[in-house]
Write a structure and sequence with these properties.
Heat Shock Protein 90, 17 helices, five-stranded antiparallel β-sheet, 51% helix, 683 residues, Helix Hairpins, Beta-Lactamase
C-alpha cells in the first residue's frame, strides 16, 4: 500500500495515526492536509510576525530605557567620584589651617609634627600627606619621613596652589619614582601586570608601574595671611575599591542576577582597569584587564563619552564611559558604569516564548477546527483521486459516488462520464496503434527490400560494364587463335604428333568463346528478339526438355500456372534460358529429392506477370545470397558461375526484376517479374 492510500481512512472519517496525519499536513499530500496547512499558516504567519515585531519594539524600548538609565547612573557615578575629590579637598583645606601645621613651618621645626600628620593621614584615609614650604621644598613627608626633602617645584598641583594661594584638587597619574619616594608600599600597590583582553588594543607595556591618585592641596598661611607653604594629600586609586563599590552600592543597590552583579563600576588608568567590581571567570576582580579598542579610541583619543553595548571581560553590558581628566585637562583615564545585558535578553526571550506560545495555541485551535471542515470537503475529492490513480494504472472501469446535488456531486457525475468516454477512446487508440505498427513493419520490410534491390542493381550494372569491356578485348584475339588453330588442324595428318595438342587448343578456345558469349549476354550485348509470349508455355516447354534428366529423378514437379495469364513482349529463347537456369539450380539444390513448384500470376498493381520457382532445398545463406547474381561466383565444384548472372541480365533487359525469398532449412523461391506490354525496339 502506498503512502497516498494510507491516508484514505482520514478522508473517510476514521482518522490515521498522528505521524501520517502530520506528514500529510506538512507535505500537502491530500486536500485535507493542504486545507489544514493553509489554515494554520493563515494564523501562524501573522502571529509570528506580530511576535517578532512586538519583541523588536519591546527590545528597542527596553534597551533605550536601559541605556537612559545607564546614562543617569554614569552621572551619579561622576557625582560620587567628584564628591570624593571635593571631600578630599575640604579635608586638606581644613587641616591646612591647624596651628600645629603652620606653626611647624613658621618655626622650621618638625617637633611634634609627625604625630599630627600621621593622625590626619589615618583620619582621612590618605595614602600620601606632604607638607611643602613656600619655596616648594618638601618640609615633611608623612608616608616616608626618611626620604630626601628635595624640591618639588615640578609638581603641578603644588605649583598651582603656591601661585594662586587657593585650594586645588583633581586626578593625577603619579610616576613610579614618585610613588617609591612617597612610600615603597604605594609603589608595590601601583605595580600591576596588564592582562591582554579580547577586543582591546595591544598593550603598550606588559606592566603598569605608575599610579592614578586623587590629590588635593591647600595653602598653609599664618593668621595674618602670610603664605608659609602647601599641605597636599592623596589617595592612590589602584587596587582601591572604595569608590567603585560605593557606586555599586549607591546606584545599583548591589543587585545580582544568576550570581553576577547587575551593575558594575570601574576606574581606568588609560585603558587598564585599576579599580573595578567587574569579575573575571575565576570570580576575582578583573584588574589589569583592558577596555575595548572601540571605547578607548572614543574616550581616550577623542575625549568623548561613549555609550552603548560593550563586551566587558566576559559578558555583554549596556555601558557608559566618561573621560577622567587631570588638573591640566588631559585625559588620563575613564570612569565606567554598566548594566548586565543578560537580564534584558532573557526577559526578551521570555516575551518571545509567550508570544509564540499564544501563536501555537491559536494554530492548534485552528487545526482542530480545520480538520473537521477539511474532512467534509476532502472525502469525495479523495475518492476521485484514488479512482484517477487506478485509471492511470490502466483500469478504466472506475466510477465514484455522486454524493449530493452540490458542486462535488456535479464533479463526480462529470468524472464518471469522462471515464466512460476514456474507455472508448483508449480502445480506439490501441487499435490505431496496432494498425500503425503493422503498417510501419510492412513499410520497413518493403524499404529494406527496395534498398537491397537498388544495391544489387547498381552492382550488376558496374559488373556488366566491366564484363562488356573484358569480352570485347578478349573476343578479337580469341577469334584469331581459333581460326589459325582450326586451319592448322586441317593441314595436319591424322597421325601427326601435334594433332592432339592442336585439337586441345581448338577445344579450349571454343570453351573460351562460349564464356565470352555468356559475358556478352550478361552485359546486354545480345539484343532480345521480342514477341508476344505466354510465360506458361515457356515454362511447360522448358520442363518438357529437362524433366527426364537424372537430376530430376527424385523431384516432384508441381504446376500452379494461371490459365488467364496475360501475354508479355519478350524474347522466347532468352526467357527459356532464364527458366532453364533456375529450374536446374533448384533441382541441384535438392540432392535428396524434394518438390519443385512453378506458379504464375498477374500482378495488377505492378502491371506485370510474375513467375515463382520454388524448391524445398536447404536455402541460401546470407553471405551467398548477396553475391548470387555476380558473374563467375559459384558454390559448385564445376561450372562457370555465369548462369544466374546471365538470367539476371536477361530480366534486366526486359525491364523486369528478379528477386529471392529464402531462409535456412526452408527452401528458396526465385520470383521473376516481367512487365506487361513494351515495345519491340526496346533495348
Amino acid at each position: 500500500m502506498n503512502a497516498e492510500s494510507q491516508t484514505v481512512p482520514d478522508a473517510a472519517g476514521a482518522g490515521p495515526r498522528w505521524p501520517a496525519r502530520l506528514r500529510a499536513w506538512l507535505g500537502g499530500a491530500t486536500i485535507q492536509g493542504r486545507l489544514v496547512r493553509n489554515f494554520a499558516i493563515a494564523i501562524l504567519v501573522p502571529a509570528v510576525v506580530t511576535a517578532v515585531v512586538g519583541v523588536g519594539m519591546i527590545r528597542q524600548l527596553v534597551f533605550a530605557q536601559a541605556q537612559t538609565q545607564v546614562n543617569a547612573d554614569l552621572e551619579a557615578a561622576k557625582e560620587i567620584y567628584q564628591s570624593t575629590v571635593d571631600r578630599l579637598e575640604d579635608a586638606i583645606r581644613i587641616h591646612a589651617t591647624r596651628m600645629m601645621i603652620y606653626g611647624a613651618l613658621a618655626r622650621r621645626d618638625t617637633a611634634g609634627l609627625a604625630e599630627e600628620m600621621d593622625r590626619i593621614r589615618r583620619a582621612e584615609h590618605l595614602d600620601v600627606l606632604t607638607l611643602t614650604d613656600a619655596d616648594g621644598r618638601v618640609f615633611y613627608r608623612s608616608g616616608n619621613p626618611a626620604a630626601p626633602t628635595d624640591g618639588e617645584a615640578d609638581d603641578a598641583l603644588v605649583t598651582l596652589v603656591l601661585k594662586d594661594v587657593e585650594p586645588a584638587a583633581g586626578t593625577e597619574v603619579v610616576g613610579a619614582a614618585v610613588l617609591e619616594r612617597e612610600s615603597p608600599a604605594l609603589a608595590k600597590q601601583a605595580r600591576m601586570t596588564i592582562t591582554p583582553t579580547p577586543r582591546a588594543r595591544p598593550p603598550a607595556a606588559k606592566e603598569l608601574r605608575s599610579g592614578m591618585m586623587l590629590r588635593a592641596a591647600a595653602p598653609v598661611t599664618t593668621p595674618a595671611g602670610r603664605l608659609l607653604g602647601v599641605l597636599d594629600g592623596g589617595v592612590l586609586l589602584t587596587r582601591n575599591y572604595a569608590i567603585v563599590d560605593k557606586i555599586r552600592q549607591t546606584v545599583f543597590k548591589e543587585e545580582e542576577y544568576e550570581g553576577r552583579p547587575v551593575g558594575t563600576a570601574t576606574i581606568f588608568q588609560n585603558d587598564v582597569r585599576i579599580s573595578t567590581n567587574v569579575r573575571s571567570a575565576d570570580g576575582t576582580r578583573a584588574i589589569g584587564t583592558q577596555a575595548s579598542a572601540e571605547v578607548a579610541d572614543a574616550v581616550l583619543s577623542r575625549g568623548e563619552t561613549w555609550r552603548g553595548r560593550a563586551f566587558v571581560v566576559q559578558d555583554w553590558y549596556l555601558a557608559a564611559y566618561a573621560p577622567i581628566r587631570d588638573i591640566s585637562g588631559a585625559t588620563v583615564g575613564m570612569l565606567y558604569v554598566g548594566v548586565l545585558e543578560r537580564p534584558f535578553t532573557n526577559s526578551l526571550w521570555r516575551s518571545l516564548l509567550v508570544f509564540l506560545g499564544i501563536a501555537a495555541g491559536g494554530v492548534a485551535l485552528v487545526y482542530l477546527v480545520s480538520v473537521r471542515v477539511a474532512r467534509r470537503i476532502s472525502g469525495p475529492i479523495h475518492s476521485m483521486a484514488l479512482a484517477a490513480q487506478r485509471i492511470a494504472q490502466g483500469d478504466y472501469s472506475q466510477a465514484v459516488d455522486g454524493g449530493g446535488d452540490d458542486e462535488l456531486g456535479y464533479l463526480a457525475h462529470s468524472f464518471n462520464t469522462m471515464t466512460t468516454e476514456l474507455q472508448f477512446a483508449h480502445k480506439a487508440l490501441r487499435e490505431s496503434a496496432d494498425e500503425l505498427e503493422r503498417k510501419v513493419e510492412a513499410r520497413t520490410a518493403e524499404l529494406k527490400l527496395m534498398q537491397a534491390q537498388m544495391i544489387q542493381s547498381e552492382k550488376m550494372v558496374a559488373i556488366g560494364k566491366l564484363a562488356a569491356g573484358v569480352a570485347h578485348e578478349i573476343n578479337n584475339p580469341l577469334t584469331g587463335v581459333l581460326t589459325n588453330s582450326s586451319l592448322m588442324l586441317e593441314d595436319l595428318a591424322d597421325d601427326h604428333p601435334w594433332r592432339e595438342d592442336i585439337q586441345t587448343i581448338v577445344n579450349e578456345t571454343l570453351r573460351c568463346r562460349k564464356i565470352v558469349k555468356g559475358l556478352l549476354d550478361f552485359s546486354r550485348q545480345t539484343r532480345p528478339q521480342r514477341t508476344l509470349l505466354d510465360l506458361n508455355q515457356v515454362v511447360e516447354d522448358t520442363l518438357a526438355l529437362v524433366r527426364n534428366q537424372t537430376v530430376f529423378r527424385n523431384t516432384r514437379i508441381v504446376y500452379e500456372l494461371d490459365p488467364h495469364l496475360p501475354t508479355v513482349l519478350a524474347d522466347a529463347d532468352q526467357m527459356r534460358q532464364v527458366v532453364l537456369n533456375l529450374v536446374l539450380n533448384a533441382a541441384e539444390a535438392m540432392v535428396q529429392g524434394g518438390e519443385l513448384r512453378l506458379a504464375s500470376s498477374a500482378n495488377s498493381a505492378k502491371k506485370a506477370v510474375e513467375l515463382r520457382i520454388s524448391d524445398t532445398g536447404p536455402g541460401i545463406p546470407d553471405e551467398v545470397r548477396v553475391r548470387i547474381f555476380e558473374p563467375f561466383f559459384t558454390t559448385k565444384k564445376t561450372g562457370t558461375g555465369l548462369g544466374l548472372a546471365v538470367a539476371y541480365g536477361i530480366i534486366q533487359r526486359h525491364h523486369g526484376e528478379i528477386r529471392i525469398e529464402t531462409s535456412r532449412g526452408r527452401g528458396t523461391t526465385f520470383i521473376i517479374s516481367v512487365p506487361i506490354g513494351g515495345t519491340a525496339d526496346d533495348d
